[in-house]
Design a protein that fits this description.
Distance between the termini: 53 Å
Protein name: Myosin IE
Pfam families: Myosin_head, Myosin_TH1
Strand order of the largest sheet: 10-9-8-7-13-12-11-14
Helix content: 25-40%
CATH superfamily of the largest domain: Pleckstrin-homology domain (PH domain)/Phosphotyrosine-binding domain (PTB)
GO molecular function: actin filament binding; ATP binding; microfilament motor activity
CATH topology of the largest domain: PH-domain like
CATH architecture of the largest domain: Roll
Shape: flat
Number of domains: 3
CATH class of the largest domain: Mainly Beta
Structural class: alpha+beta
Family: Belongs to the TRAFAC class myosin-kinesin ATPase superfamily. Myosin family.
GO biological process, one term: actin filament organization
Length: 521
């Protein structure tokens, strides 16, 4: 076997024990000769780098040999060993009688011996490992270095551990808790099992005809490969989402036309990926749960569209934009800015058209906000629920093809009077709304959608008593929801205009793609 770094270090210290200067450079030269070609070793004129499993570590050669000698005179060791404290004595286990004629031990040899002793101790027991991941080197909150975390996850073997855990007996539970949960399944265990807990667990597993290779009994826990209760949890979760979807559909029932490709889609909640954008969390309270997150289009007084991140919590609504820093050390950088925060108590109503468009207006005591979101139905259902919880009143939804927009009062320019704007909706063609601003009025035209009395169905079938039947090959009747098994689209993160929507464009449904079913966090 080739010599290791510790062995080379001890060799240099032994051959140059009387020399102080030049020993470090001699060590560096020997390291370059012996292990310079190793893939995990690099060096330069002042030190070397070792590629550890969790990252690269650089070492400075200055004083390396001197620290390794670690000379501790015999009289000092005798003094420590004469202490009355057992702990102090255990720190100096050297046998002075046997070691007097030998070479003094170095720091490197002690490290090797301690490492070997640790491995021997670990092999005699069952260790439990705690994996610690460093998100940054600045030791500050909200500083997340994704490449560093990915590197640690890879070299700590966390993904492999999860795969092994899932492939094996992933479910584990203490005998007592297992008996308490499933005792009702048999007469012998309900209401109380009188015998040994381990035998009671075995009786329960055998009573449900579980194969012997599907479980193992340990000293205090039962280990099961695939617990059947996960099917029940999946059923409950699916039922909850279906109920949420139907409640959202009832908000617009007989009041607004629906889009063909959205009425049966799953509700996700988080369309931004809040875990990947911790910079947005700074505007939300520490204990506020984010029910809904989406990148929407917000129209100003000139009906110019800009991208905003819309966040909904049980207490407030947040509109977050991005601006360039004009001065200071971060000059030129684009940073998140809180554009508006609306408390639930200050919300008056929400206005929508009767057509299948995605535009809605949030009416607040001071001024209104004109927004457009593909996921408006999901947002409105969650908003109505949170509003009722906070105010004990139902959220007022107004439906009209002529909507009034109250503007924010400005103290400069020709628009300083504040005033109002109007949004008018007209019957057009296609499923994509066409916006045409004219002075203080925004004209919106869009083709007809599903009838107002359309409702979603648990099996994904659109229910409408007035919908005429179609031929088997008809594209409209065979069109399935685009929301199943599609990846999350790359939502715009930078501020941009909405002028491309002001004229007729070819129809595109790419913006309707959503991720697999999950939950907002």
């Amino acid at each position: 076997n080739p010599p290791g770094i510790m062995s080379i270090l001890d060799d240099v210290c032994a051959t140059m024990h009387a020399v102080g200067e030049g020993a470090d450079q001699t060590l560096l030269q020997k390291l370059q000769m012996q292990i310079g070609s190793h893939e995990h070793f690099n060096s330069w004129n002042q030190g070397f780098i070792i590629h550890h499993y969790a990252g690269k570590v650089s070492y400075d050669m200055d004083g390396f040999c001197e620290r390794n000698r670690d000379v501790l005179f015999m009289d000092l060791i005798e003094l420590m060993q004469s202490s009355e404290l057992p702990f102090i004595q255990s720190l100096f286990p050297e046998n002075l009688q046997a070691d007097k004629k030998g070479r003094p031990t170095t720091a490197g040899s002690k490290i090797k011996k301690q490492a070997n002793d640790l491995v021997s101790t670990l092999m005699k027991c069952t260790p439990h490992y705690i994996r610690c991941i460093k998100p940054n080197e600045t030791k500050k909150p909200k500083d997340w270095e994704e490449s560093r975390v990915k590197h640690q996850v890879e070299y700590l073997g966390l993904k492999e551990n999860i795969r092994v855990r899932r492939a094996g007996y992933a479910y584990r539970r203490v005998f007592q808790k297992f008996l308490q949960r499933y005792a009702i399944l048999t007469k012998a265990t309900w209401p109380v099992w009188r015998g040994d807990e381990k035998q009671g667990v075995l009786h329960l597993l055998q009573s449900v005809n579980m194969d012997n290779d599907q479980f193992q009994l340990g000293k205090s826990k039962v280990f099961i490969k695939a617990p059947e209760s996960k099917t029940w949890r999946k059923f409950v979760a699916r039922k909850k989402y279906v109920q949420m979807r139907e409640e959202a559909s009832d908000l617009l029932l007989n009041k607004k036309e629906r889009r063909r490709n959205s009425i049966n889609r799953n509700f996700i909640g988080d369309y931004i990926g809040m875990e990947e954008h911790p910079e947005l969390q700074q505007f939300v309270g520490k204990r506020e749960k984010i029910d809904f997150a989406d990148t929407v289009t917000k129209y100003d007084r000139r009906f110019k569209g800009v991208k905003r991140d819309l966040l909904l919590t049980p207490k407030c609504l947040y509109l977050i934009g991005r601006e360039k820093v004009k001065q200071g050390p971060d000059k030129g950088l684009v940073k998140e800015v809180l554009k508006r925060r609306i408390e639930m108590e200050r919300l008056l109503s929400v206005s929508l058209s009767t057509m299948q468009d995605d535009i809605f207006i949030l009416h607040e005591q001071e001024y209104d906000s004109l927004l457009e979101s593909v996921f408006k139905t999901e947002f409105l259902s969650l908003l109505a629920k949170r509003y009722e919880e906070k105010t004990q009143k139902q959220l007022l939804l107004k439906f009209s093809n002529t909507l009034e927009l109250k503007l924010k009062k400005e103290n400069w320019g020709p628009w300083s009077a504040g005033g109002s704007r109007q949004v008018q909706f007209h019957q057009g063609f296609g499923d994509l709304a066409v916006l045409k601003p004219s002075n203080k009025v925004l004209q919106v035209s869009i083709g007809p959608g599903l009838p107002k009395n359309s409702r979603c169905h648990q099996n994904g079938v659109i229910r409408n008593q007035f919908m005429p039947p179609h031929a088997p090959g008809n594209q409209r009747s065979n069109q399935k929801s685009l929301y199943t098994s599609m990846a999350r689209p790359p939502l715009p993160r930078q501020q941009s205009t909405g002028s491309d929507r002001l004229s007729q464009t070819p129809e595109s449904l790419d913006f309707l793609k959503v991720p697999d079913q999950g939950a907002a966090g």
